[in-house]
Design goal:
about 130 residues, 3 helices, single chain, 7-stranded mixed sheet, about 45% strand, alpha/beta, Nuclear Transport Factor 2, Chain: A
Length: about 130
């Protein structure tokens, strides 16, 4: 997968973590994601029913594995306290393009455990 990342990784350790999590999402690296997920994580793909719990989260992401990203572009990462957000684009191997924004809430300001993610995904025209 081609990566186009921010040179500064988002200006902070939390920003770097969000960048790394985004890469893991796009590459479906469940093993790399798993240690950063709280047991009671909630993942809301806007427009769908929220997915609750680490096992359900990993299962849902595993079901998406067939749609592989050929390119990931990170345009912006913002963090403050126990929250952070990333905006970017993915180009899939079949040529489909998606813009996304993921909003993260961590268990605490100093924690690396993700408590919730709200994801907005929009397919772009070619």
């Amino acid at each position: 997968m081609k990566l186009f990342l921010l040179m500064n990784g988002g200006h902070s350790p939390k920003g770097k973590l969000i960048q790394d999590l985004s890469i893991s999402f796009a590459s479906y690296d469940l093993e790399r994601l798993e240690p950063f997920l709280a047991e009671d994580i909630t993942w809301t793909l806007i427009g769908d029913t929220p997915i609750k719990g680490k096992a359900n989260f990993l299962a849902a992401l595993g079901e998406m594995m067939g749609n592989t990203a050929a390119e990931l572009q990170i345009h912006q990462i913002v963090t403050h306290g126990k929250e952070g957000a990333v905006y970017g684009e993915m180009i899939m191997e079949n040529g489909d393009r998606f813009a996304f924004a993921d909003f993260y809430v961590f268990s605490s300001t100093r924690s690396d455990l993700v408590k919730s993610i709200s994801s907005f995904v929009i397919q772009k025209t070619k």
